[in-house]
Design a protein that fits this description.
Length: 332
């Protein structure tokens, strides 16, 4: 098969996966019983137990019955949700060339949104990944006026990419909207990077401990070191010592979590460990991208994890009156 045919078949395959994902529902949302959708994830839990794990694509407020379908839609898999739409204004991107990429977010009235809540020091976070999840960029556009956002974007090579806008309009719930970006040119799809728990970036080594368990709040500990020595003076970046984005490999469903604690809270240390609590709704491969700052520079460490089978809770034993000790149950 020649190269144009290969590319055409691959793009068609992407369209099938994307369309199927929209039909299935929210791939990465806060999972409980039943799963609920939420639009911005901040997982702020006590030092040993998570109280909640919010993810991009779900809302924790009670939903009306008529809203149930939209709340089950995954974060980042829709270009439009709750009347808000991500509108790319730049149509041409050349591989390897910096592009002044512009876009708007329109609201339910059809006009550009100009009033946003500040979240993690920014009004809007812009994430761009390649469809094969080999490249990742966490960018912060500037407001160019009249609701237009502008960001300098360089996509390294031809192929298909996914852009996510993570924001909360003033007075509204947080949302993550996604749109495809295509860069023309010869392109060969790549396999998902192999599963890994260690990442090396700019002389730093980051190790990941913990597992993603479908349907449960999962503790993930990322430890940063350099030249074999632990880093104990991480610098705050956007109000935290680290930011973690997880994307499901099959459809790029989006989960954005934040670490347990925050700088200046009296208990959170600036490294070497950064603890996160995250929930994923299903088994499968996930790509994790950790942003951390040290010595004035932000670096990104990436990992691939396979969730495996969902855990089955063990049945609770039935207490026997004859063996009762008189002590009540302790709930955590």
């Amino acid at each position: 098969m020649n190269t144009p045919a290969k590319l055409g078949a691959y793009v068609l395959g992407l369209a099938v996966v994307f369309g199927g994902a929209l039909g299935v529902g929210n791939a990465v949302g806060e999972v409980g019983a039943p799963p609920q959708a939420n639009s911005h994830s901040q997982s702020h839990a006590p030092s040993s137990q998570p109280t909640s794990a919010h993810d991009s694509g779900t809302h924790t407020t009670n939903a009306k019955p008529s809203e149930a379908a939209s709340e089950d839609t995954p974060g980042g898999l829709q270009v439009s949700e709750n009347g808000f739409t991500l509108n790319p204004l730049t149509s041409t991107i050349k591989p390897g060339e910096p592009t002044d990429f512009q876009f708007t977010v329109t609201g339910p009235n059809g006009g550009p949104v100009t009033d946003y809540q500040v979240q993690h020091d920014k009004k809007l976070h812009f994430i761009v990944v390649s469809r094969d999840l080999g490249t990742f960029q966490h960018l912060h556009p500037i407001e160019a006026g009249d609701g237009v956002w502008s960001v300098k974007l360089t996509l390294p090579e031809a192929g298909a990419y996914r852009a996510f806008a993570d924001f909360a309009p003033t007075g509204g719930s947080a949302l993550t909207l996604g749109a495809d970006l295509l860069v023309a040119g010869e392109y060969t799809p790549k396999a998902l990077p192999a599963a890994s728990r260690t990442a090396d970036v700019d002389g730093y080594t980051v190790t990941l401990d913990g597992d993603l368990v479908p349907g449960q709040a999962s503790k993930l500990t990322l430890t940063v070191s350099k030249d074999g020595k632990p880093i104990t003076d991480l610098q705050p970046y956007l109000g935290a010592y680290g930011h973690l984005v997880a994307l499901r490999g099959s459809d790029l469903a989006y989960l954005h979590v934040h670490p347990d604690g925050e700088p200046g809270d009296g208990r959170t240390k600036p490294g070497p460990e950064i603890v996160f609590y995250a929930e994923v709704p299903s088994r499968g491969d996930y790509r994790l991208f950790l942003d951390f700052q040290h010595e004035g520079k932000v670096r990104t460490a990436d990992f691939t994890l396979d969730t495996g089978q969902a855990a089955t809770p063990a049945p609770k034993p039935t207490p026997s009156p004859a063996k009762s000790t008189g002590h009540g149950d302790h709930k955590h």
